[in-house]
Amino acid sequence: MKEYKIKINGNEYAVAISNVEDNTASVSVNGTQYEVEVEGMNVPQQVKTPRIVQPSVAASSQVDPATARTSSPAATASASAGNIKSPLPGVVLDVMVQVGDAVKTGQRLMILEAMKMENNIDSDRDGTVREIRARKGDSVLEGDVLITIG
């Protein structure tokens, strides 16, 4: 609200402008409310704040969906093919297994450096290492197959 002291023909008036929309203003003169129309006034357009609407969340049938989806970086592995894929782009720092090695679920297979952090790539199944597609020092992209377990 803006308040002004106005003198007209020697008479002083207390004027308060409370709201301006388009060319109509709500004005109080000495305590009396008026709606006045203003001609030739450049009124800035009011910017409306957008309303944020959150999407509804559907119920999941999974018992513990957070654990099931993010248990380890090897969760990106393809269940049917036995492929362990890179969870993000990076450089292979170390490979802890060789072709023919028997591995257990949760066993560390390699270490991947990504975003200046070391990420453990663990086995998501029991089996035998059939193929190693990434060697120490190799740069890999997200989704690249690193190791195949059969």
Molecular structure report:
The chain is mostly beta strands. Helix content is 4%, strand content 45%. It contains 1 helix and 12 strands, in the order E-E-E-E-H-E-E-E-E-E-E-E-E. The protein has one helix at residues 65-70; strands at residues 2-8, 11-21, 24-29, 32-37, 83-85, 90-95, 102-103, 108-114, 117-122, 127-132, 139-140, 145-149. The strands form 3 sheets. It has a 4-stranded antiparallel β-sheet with strand order 1-2-3-4, with no helix packed on it. Strands 5-12-10-7 form a 4-stranded antiparallel β-sheet, with no helix packed on it. Strand 3 and strand 4 form a beta hairpin. It is rod-shaped, with a radius of gyration of 34 Å. It starts with a strand and ends with a strand.
Contiguous uncertain segments of 5+ residues: 67-80
Order of helices and strands: EEEEHEEEEEEEE
Please give the radius of gyration in angstroms: 34 Å
Task: Please list the strands of the largest sheet in the order they lie side by side.
Answer: 1-2-3-4
Structural class call reads: mainly beta
Helix content: under 10%
SS elements, strand count: 12
Oligomer: single chain
What is the molecular shape? rod-shaped
Topology (SSEs and partners):
Blueprint: E1 2-8, E2 11-21, E3 24-29, E4 32-37, H1 65-70, E5 83-85, E6 90-95, E7 102-103, E8 108-114, E9 117-122, E10 127-132, E11 139-140, E12 145-149
Antiparallel strand pairs: 1-2, 2-3, 3-4, 5-12, 6-8, 6-11, 7-10, 8-9, 10-12
Short description:
By secondary structure, this protein is mainly β. Helix content is 4%, strand content 45%.
